[in-house]
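Dear Dr. H.,

I hope your travels went smoothly. While you were away I took the liberty of generating a structure for the chain from your last submission, since the lab meeting agenda had it listed for discussion. I wanted you to have the full record in hand beforehand rather than looking at slides cold. The sequence, exactly as received, is reproduced here:
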Amino acid sequence: MPDQPVLLIDDSDGVRTLTLNRPDAYNSFTTELKETLLAELRWAATEPSVRAVVITGAGKAFSAGQDLREHVEVLNADEGPPMSTVDEHYNPLVRALITLPKPVIAAVNGTAAGAGASLAFACDLRVAAESAKFLLAFAGVGLSADTGASWTLPRLIGHGRAMELMLLGRPVTAEEALRIGMVSRVVPDGTALTAATELAASMAAGPTLAYAGIKEALRAAGGADLEHALATESRTQSELAATSDHREAVQAFVTKRPPSFSGQ
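The corresponding predicted structure, in token form, is as follows:
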């Protein structure tokens, strides 16, 4: 029986769905999976037919984070820095997700731990199944945060809660995640992917260039002073005012009809 691909890809209605496909290992990240996912995210960023992205996991888990079996082999080999994967894979993955000029939705179908949880936090929206759990397990294996969690998580839930979850490694249920702002929506088990895909399809039919501008403006404002935030807003608004989508939306408003966005 041939090996299954580590990443499944599906395209429908302008939505590219990327499914982490190592269910027997709870979709933990090997070098192959990280490199394949990164390549697909970079491709989706520039492909006009892709107007929204969904990321999910096969089987019972979203992702358990780093594949520790592979990590042990790296430690035992004692060749080069043991955590070079942070610079080579995890940091580029976070950059690709956060700067991707299209909506990215995580369909958290099960447990998301370590880098798996961090990957979900780097997405724009998170739809979680009722039984999903989030676990910041870095301290438990004697490590600090990675995959952007130190940047994304405090922006979602605040510094104090983020500190608590990272220091104590306490699991967060889907219900609590919704209450504290870690996820956008909680849905019945078995429906997270469907709900996320429907949301992505709706957004794919929307003003995707405007979404890109909003993402950039919020990203810039998150670590900048007021003047830089205002300058970014001014630039992105000027760029978007020249788009076909903006003209269509204004014309639709004036003529009292629904807009038809093209992503241009």
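Two observations you may find useful: The mean pLDDT is 89. The domain at 208-254 is CATH 1.10.12 (Lyase 2-enoyl-coa Hydratase; Chain  A, domain 2).

With kind regards,
E. W.
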